[in-house]
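Checked the freezer inventory, then went back to the computational side. Two predictions to log before the end of the day. The first one is the construct we discussed on Monday; recording sequence and tokens without edits.
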Amino acid sequence: MYNLGDIIMMKKPHACQNNRWEVLRLGADIKIRCLGCGHQIMMARAEFNKKYKKIITQQNEVHRDQETFYIDPRNIKSPNQLQQGVNLWH
């Protein structure tokens, strides 16, 4: 099955003619990003399972130089890390 960060193929290509997507969020809804144009789509898991075709690359096999839109999980920052030293509660 698919996991967070996997590169997957859908049954039909996106409008940009690319058929490669990165899984960004898993849950009741699934969020994916087109690796051709960067467009993000969120859909219900049942709908995704109907449109999903196969896994191209699993997250642990991704090389950042091959995937231009791939987000390295080590580089994801929480909101607290983005506001380093800024006091939001004056």
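The second is the one RB wanted added to the comparison set:
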Amino acid sequence: MTGPVEAVLFDLDDTICTYERSADDILALAFDRVGVDPFFDGAEYVGRLAEFSDAGDDIRDTRRAAFGTFAAEAGHGEAVGEEIADIYTDERDQSNVRFLDGAERALDALTDAYRVGMVTNGDPWMQSQKLAGLGIEDRFEVVVHGGHDAPYKPDPEPFHLALDELGVAPDRTVHVGNSHAADVTGAHAAGLRSVWLADGDRSAALDPEPHHVVESLHDLAEEPWA
């Protein structure tokens, strides 16, 4: 892949932005209000959520199903978990997000030079509020929601939907994301070049190997593929 890049696709969560309040902070509040000791944490919530999600599901319904199951597994009734999920939803302001370091600079630089889109695994109801909270909802010519508009990344279909809308070939496109499993693997499956925002230990061999690795999105503004 040595031809000129014409388009850049971005992931959203933990690539461009992150929540101001962590999942563990909100869970602690919810457990306290319900009056039970914590029986799962944010890592388990995020790690197991896919067990309860089918394509097109509303994240609020998925969360209730997940938390209800966690509660039953811990010896509580499902209703306890569902109450915790409802408190979580009420407390989780989807627009209360902040840019990751370098993200705003990268967007400013790249939107002037390339066609720009987004491929994100997430509920449109949720993701649109994050974009609005950051004030960047008009920066992307196309936004494809994996799990709703198409299967979740790393399936190649959400990437192809975005490129069809942009009218750009896969080998003229780079995708930027923090998840090796979803973003790098998905980009390669779709025939795109990958830029991996490194998320910690890189001692293990990566398969597939990203075309480019950046430590922050400040590096992205320098166009590592150029």
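For RB: The mean pLDDT is 93. The beta strands are 7-10, 17-19, 97-99, 115-121, 142-146, 173-177, 193-197, 212-214. Let me know if you want it refolded.
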